[in-house]
Automatic annotation (TrEMBL):
<protein>
    <recommendedName>
        <fullName>DUF1573 domain-containing protein</fullName>
    </recommendedName>
</protein>
<dbReference type="InterPro" id="IPR013783">
    <property type="entry name" value="Ig-like_fold"/>
</dbReference>
<feature type="signal peptide">
    <location>
        <begin position="1"/>
        <end position="20"/>
    </location>
</feature>
<dbReference type="InterPro" id="IPR011467">
    <property type="entry name" value="DUF1573"/>
</dbReference>
<keyword id="KW-0732">Signal</keyword>
<dbReference type="Pfam" id="PF07610">
    <property type="entry name" value="DUF1573"/>
</dbReference>
Amino acid sequence: MKRIILLAAITVFGVATSNAQTAKKTAKKADTPAKVETPKVDGAGMLFENETIDYGTIPHNSDGKREFVFVNNGNKPLTIESTQGSCGCTVPSKPEGSIAPGAKGVIGVKYATDRVGPFTKTVTIKSNAAGQETKVVTIKGTVLPDAPADGATPTKS
């Protein structure tokens, strides 16, 4: 009877130990970050780091300049033909010249932060990118009103 109990205890201990070692190996594999490969395109390509820029909550008349960064993931030079904001308060700028395969490019955008309140605007980009000759990216956020100069809350008259 003692031998059976001893044999059962050794078996349970052995199984528990081997499972713990397997779990450690699995955890180590999961901790290694996966290498992200940029998908390649035949022709010119345009792959953005972010297609939406969130300004968050910003003060009135603060700096409204931001940048959309992209990479030419194709095998031919990328040319940005034009950039167009969805309204006059959103002014984009395009890179001059061509972006070589594998090179990064930047499309600047300036939002007029003199307009108070939430906003969501788009920038339309026209290029020679294969399969996406027209690309739309977005900016969004909220512009806070100016605080009263004396620190008091305004009263209605």
